[in-house]
């Protein structure tokens, strides 16, 4: 199990397997934490390694050698610039931390040092930044209980340290009812660009089923929905676009729709498409199987059917009694995982 701590030090002084650089999308040397990391690692070597990668999306991370640092690796995480909190800033910040932790795990690290991402020149309110940081670390722990990862936050301001410690005490050590046990060992997901986004129906993943090539599982489900109700025009329109949002919009407008028929068929259709998605894409299959036997939960406040009806950052996601949705996608993915684990052919 991982541990989480906060200390007062310059992050470049940490003797961890990896340290995290507060990066920008272009992976250029900057000021603050970013500049300190480049100076300590060796500007020319590190910039050359970053140039070879070229780009990193906001809400994600990439990895390079640590060069002259004590750390073996530098993980370059791109947090969001704060606008007003309604432009996916929490999801992007959470994703930057989660992807950093996954990269550390994938590269055999047992310790990682973080700055408080986005809380400097990117303007993210420190108290809210701490909440996303700790939640991401906690969710990583819950998803990988077998992984021993020492997580250290390095800060140089006592007020920021105290704020982080308070958040850590509140979020990591709450009273957890015994009947909630399984969901404190769960994987929560939502959009393709966020942590565990490959589980989303919108995630780009080409597969072939019934002689037709599909761009993602959303396209397959919406295509089958239109065909089920005899709307051939809508079915063709679904196949004509690779935009999952448009596919969903077309499918929702299928003529002849009967809710009771769809309620009886939708999970079977979803299972078939998802099995094809994961069985035909080896990297996605491996990622799904790597989740073991943990709960898979889609978090979306507006979706009361496929998701649990709770936001990804809401602690109520841990309590099934507080769910406002059915989490059909999560449960269907667990059935697909079970079928893949037992080599069942559907």
Protein traits:
346 residues; Tetracycline Repressor, domain 2; alpha/beta; Leucine Aminopeptidase, subunit E, domain 1; 6-stranded mixed sheet; 2 domains; two-stranded parallel sheet; elongated
Lay out the secondary structure.
Layout: E1 3-8, E2 18-22, H1 32-41, H2 43-53, E3 61-65, E4 73-77, H3 89-106, E5 111-114, H4 126-143, E6 150-155, H5 158-172, E7 186-189, E8 207-209, E9 212-214, H6 217-228, H7 232-239, H8 244-252, H9 259-279, H10 282-289, E10 295-298, H11 328-341
Parallel strand pairs: 1-6, 2-4, 2-5, 5-6, 7-10
Antiparallel strand pairs: 3-4, 8-9
Write a structural description:
This protein has 346 residues and is α/β, with parallel strands linked by helices. Helix content is 42%, strand content 13%. It folds into 2 domains: 3-174, Leucine Aminopeptidase, subunit E, domain 1 (3-Layer(aba) Sandwich), CATH 3.40.220.10; 197-341, Tetracycline Repressor, domain 2 (Orthogonal Bundle), CATH 1.10.357.40. The protein has helices at 32-41, 43-53, 89-106, 126-143, 158-172, 217-228, 232-239, 244-252, 259-279, 282-289, 328-341, and strands spanning 3-8, 18-22, 61-65, 73-77, 111-114, 150-155, 186-189, 207-209, 212-214, 295-298. The strands form 3 sheets. Strands 1-6-5-2-4-3 form a 6-stranded mixed β-sheet, sandwiched between helices. A two-stranded parallel ribbon has the order 7-10. The two termini are 36 Å apart.
């Amino acid at each position: 199990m991982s541990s989480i701590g906060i200390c007062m030090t310059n992050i470049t002084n940490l003797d961890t397997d990896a340290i995290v650089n507060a990066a920008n999308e272009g992976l250029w040397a900057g000021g603050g934490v970013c500049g300190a990391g480049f100076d300590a690692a060796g500007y020319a070597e590190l910039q050359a390694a970053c140039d070879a990668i070229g780009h990193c999306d906001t809400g994600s991370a990439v990895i390079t050698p640590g060069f002259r640092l004590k750390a073996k690796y530098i993980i370059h995480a791109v947090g969001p610039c704060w606008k007003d909190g309604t432009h996916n800033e929490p999801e992007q910040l959470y994703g930057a931390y989660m992807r950093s932790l996954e990269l550390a795990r994938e590269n055999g690290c047992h310790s990682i040092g973080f700055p408080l991402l986005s809380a400097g020149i990117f303007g993210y309110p420190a108290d809210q930044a701490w909440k996303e940081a700790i939640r991401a670390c906690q969710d990583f722990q819950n998803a990988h209980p077998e992984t021993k990862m020492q997580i250290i936050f390095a800060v140089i301001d006592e007020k920021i340290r105290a704020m982080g410690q308070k958040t850590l005490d509140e979020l990591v050590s709450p009273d957890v009812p015994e009947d909630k046990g399984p969901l404190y060992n769960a994987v929560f997901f939502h959009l393709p660009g966020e942590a565990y986004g490959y589980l989303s129906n919108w995630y780009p993943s080409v597969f072939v089923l019934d002689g037709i090539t599909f761009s993602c599982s959303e396209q397959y489900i919406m295509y089958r929905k239109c065909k089920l109700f005899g709307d051939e025009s809508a079915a063709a329109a679904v196949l004509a676009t690779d935009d999952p949002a448009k596919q969903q919009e077309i499918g929702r407008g299928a003529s002849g729709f009967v809710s009771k028929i769809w309620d009886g068929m939708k999970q079977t259709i979803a299972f078939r498409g998802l099995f094809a998605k994961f069985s035909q894409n080896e990297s996605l299959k491996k990622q799904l199987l790597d989740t073991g036997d943990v709960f898979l939960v889609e978090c979306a406040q507006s979706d009361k059917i496929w998701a649990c009806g709770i936001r990804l950052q809401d602690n109520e996601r841990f309590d099934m009694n507080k769910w406002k949705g059915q989490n059909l996608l999560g449960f269907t993915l667990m059935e697909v995982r079970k079928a893949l684990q037992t080599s069942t052919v559907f």
